[in-house]
Amino acid sequence: MNFNTPKSTSLDFSKWTTVSTRLVKSEGKREPEWMELSVLDSPMWDGIHSSYFLLYKSEPGADADDVLPIDRLIGSLGKALEHFYPFAGRLIKPEKDKAVRLFCNNEGAPFTHKHFDGVVSDLMDVEQFKSNEILSGLYDVYPAAEVFDASGVPTLIIQVTDFKCGTRCLSTSWSHNVADGFSGTHFLASWAQIARGEPISLLPVHNRTLLGPRKSSRVLDGGPCRFLNNIIEEPAVLQLAEPEGGIGGRSFKLSRRRMNELKAEALRDSQFGSLSTANCVSAHLWRLITEKRGHAPHEMTRFCTLVNCRPRLKDCPAGYFGNCIALVASPVTVGELLSNSLGHAATIIHKAIKELNEDVIRDYIDWLSVNKFQWSSVGDEPFMLGDPRSNLHSVQASWHNWFPFYELDFGGGRPSLALLNGYRVDESYTGVFFPLPTSTNSSEGGLNIFLFGGKNMLGRLDNEL
């Protein structure tokens, strides 16, 4: 699957009709306020919107409003924004090299209703899905990355697309500066609860000072940061290399049976009596991608895992709204990775994640508060802790398998399919993969995995994914 170029029909604007467009605002009364972003919110996520879509299929002869009612969506969204009011605000960036700020001014979330003159298969092949910004709403509202002007950038963008076959698509895109995947899907789940007439089961907490630096620590005094112990020491200049053949993408399904096989194989050679399925699948892809890249045994590679820090911080509530994730790196030589077993690789990942405790996370926050901006001397790329300076040697996972996409019933039933609509990817996404749940949540269900990387390397993976 190639994520870069949509099918020609998706760019045929004569097939698209805008039914309506509006700004949905919070129904609650609140004075405008500046909400300061935490060090985990900015600047690493500037210009990135997390974009997903959900397909809702109506019964033959039924109206799409039966499965995803527009009026109910709009009305419940206004109520949801009372609680998740940062999603009705704007991101403001006063100058190019200044920090992005969040203005909670209730300007409203853009909500567009469109009609596509065709069936779903005319626009996309769900088995060979291609990223489509026209489908996401980003194309109309946010036409280019890192466009910040006096009016600001919407923090939440919603588009509903109707197809002639009766399917209705709900696309959601939220700013990663404002929310990580846990907070974004927390909002979606709460919105769906309101649409069904139910109370919100988990209210959001907007106190971002909970992730502020400590008043004093050895890190703030210039001492060592334990979080940096697993970062490979490399030259100080950030250089993102163009992958071989340019960057592309592939999607593939991993069955529950294959996942269980990988876990059983890893456990046979691990010193731990228990390894998560995620770590075993990650280890498998890390070894496979590294092998196909063809690096020399003495070169370094590392696996980076995005970890939810909420349950690891005693003063951080489950409903914390914002970014509360850390990128944990597991560095080894290519030779060590490939000459040892799958269990060895899974154990390396497991140990690095296990070491991410409260003290390490607080060190990380303190370090970031002192080192907020470290610009490279080449280009405008910011230094992002844990992000590969040598991007062609790293593999990274952002696990979406626990996000409740298939529980999002807005009053007419659950979606038949949930997919990542891609990001505006560049070289920094080389070797990054996103596992999402499949449409079935039974024990037989597996994963839909989206992998970005060099096109030539991806071609060499074709027969092994």
Automatic annotation (TrEMBL):
<dbReference type="InterPro" id="IPR023213">
    <property type="entry name" value="CAT-like_dom_sf"/>
</dbReference>
<comment type="similarity">
    <text>Belongs to the plant acyltransferase family.</text>
</comment>
<dbReference type="InterPro" id="IPR050317">
    <property type="entry name" value="Plant_Fungal_Acyltransferase"/>
</dbReference>
<protein>
    <submittedName>
        <fullName>Uncharacterized protein</fullName>
    </submittedName>
</protein>
<dbReference type="Pfam" id="PF02458">
    <property type="entry name" value="Transferase"/>
</dbReference>
